Amino acid sequence: MSEKNDNIVILGVESSCDDTSAAIIRDGYLLSNVISSQAVHSAYGGVVPELASRAHQQNIIPTIHQAIKVAGIDKHDISAIAYTRGPGLIGSLLVGTSFAKGFSLALNVPLIEVNHLQGHVLAHFIKEKGVEPHVPEFPFLCLLVSGGNSQIILVKSPYDMEIIGQTIDDAAGEAFDKCAKVIGGPYPGGPYVDKLAKEGNAKAFDFAKPHIPGYDYSFSGLKTSFLYQVRDFVKEDPDFIEKNRADLCASFQRAVVETLMNKLWHAAKDLKINRVAVAGGVSANSGVRGAFQDYSNKYGWEIFLPKFSYTTDNAAMIATAGMFKYMKGEFDGIDSVPYSRV
Ligand code: KG4
């Protein structure tokens, strides 16, 4: 970002799912990134939308307050407010959107709407003082893998992104969550499966992998294959899960990672792009990160792996995306409404 962003302070607000987050960036550099997670959902094995909305309502003011405090700024220093407009849970989005609108009116500063998925991609451009930036040049490919999305995105500029492949059913994160559920693990299941997979044999079991044309993904068949195999083994041995937990996780993770990487490799080859990034909650996965490293060694990819704190939902990425829009003068009206789907 150029000198044009001098003394520009952006407040980012994220509330698309079950994390309430606020971040401040000044002159392009991150000053604070506060995330209030919602433990209430773990008892239900998934995010309960109504509970998420209520928790956002409780968390939003303290979270914003904390972000301003940690950043060491005054609220009147804020130049613009960037907020996640969608996609996400509509009730959750309404809380962040309403807050952003109210605060922008009170401070008399412009509003900037941010697409949550573009925010994840632009997490690679979050700048921190004292940290050497490693940002991809345009164009690059980004594998966006989260609880709600699995996409291959051709990123031509911060303002121009094309989804060239996406899941036709479940997302990769959802598949991890369901795998964990089948073997009695917690929600969210991704970190649990990842941890156990490190101790298991990834070749112990084979699960059906999808054959979908183009760069699209499908994870529902893999999920069903996992469920049915486990169910059949348990019929023969009631202690099967207990005895094979780590191998099941390792084998399932291998299937997900191979599926993700196969399509990504084809896209990179066809488009002749060797700058490849990964973003979203599942980008924290050790199997995904290991595969990126392997492909980098084998195919000469220049890879971009986000810091762990920027893999899951956060407002630093929303503020960063907002900064790009600020530079272009792309502001939002007070009448814009959140959207649950793209
Ligand atoms: O991006 P995110 O925080 O939320 C949205 O979906 O927007 O992603 C959450 C997803 C969950 O499905 C979670 O199980 C998965 O990311 N996840 C992981 C790991 N950490 C989080 N999946 C696999 N391995 C991980 N280490």
pLDDT average, as an integer? 96
Rg on CA atoms, Å: 20 Å
List the total number of helices: 9
Q: Can you tell me the residue ranges where pLDDT is under 50 for at least 5 consecutive residues? A: none
Strand content is 15-25%
Order of strands, widest sheet: 3-2-1-4-5
Order of helices and strands: EEEHEHEHEEEHHHHEHEH
Bound molecules: 5'-O-[(R)-(carboxyoxy)(hydroxy)phosphoryl]adenosine
Structural description of this entry:
The protein has helices at residues 49-71, 90-107, 116-122, 172-182, 190-197, 220-236, 240-271, 286-299, 315-328; strands spanning 9-14, 19-26, 29-37, 80-86, 111-115, 140-145, 150-157, 160-166, 275-279, 302-304. With 342 residues, it is α/β, with parallel strands linked by helices. The strands form 2 sheets. It has a 5-stranded mixed sheet with strand order 3-2-1-4-5, with helices on both faces. The chain has a 5-stranded mixed sheet with strand order 8-7-6-9-10, with helices on both faces. 5'-O-[(R)-(carboxyoxy)(hydroxy)phosphoryl]adenosine binds at residues 17, 146-148, 173-174, 176-177, 188-191, 194, 280-282, 284-285, 312-313.
Task: List the topology elements.
Layout: E1 9-14, E2 19-26, E3 29-37, H1 49-71, E4 80-86, H2 90-107, E5 111-115, H3 116-122, E6 140-145, E7 150-157, E8 160-166, H4 172-182, H5 190-197, H6 220-236, H7 240-271, E9 275-279, H8 286-299, E10 302-304, H9 315-328
Parallel strand pairs: 1-4, 4-5, 6-9, 9-10
Antiparallel strand pairs: 1-2, 2-3, 6-7, 7-8
The chain binds 5'-O-[(R)-(carboxyoxy)(hydroxy)phosphoryl]adenosine.
5'-O-[(R)-(carboxyoxy)(hydroxy)phosphoryl]adenosine binds at residues 17, 146-148, 173-174, 176-177, 188-191, 194, 280-282, 284-285, 312-313.
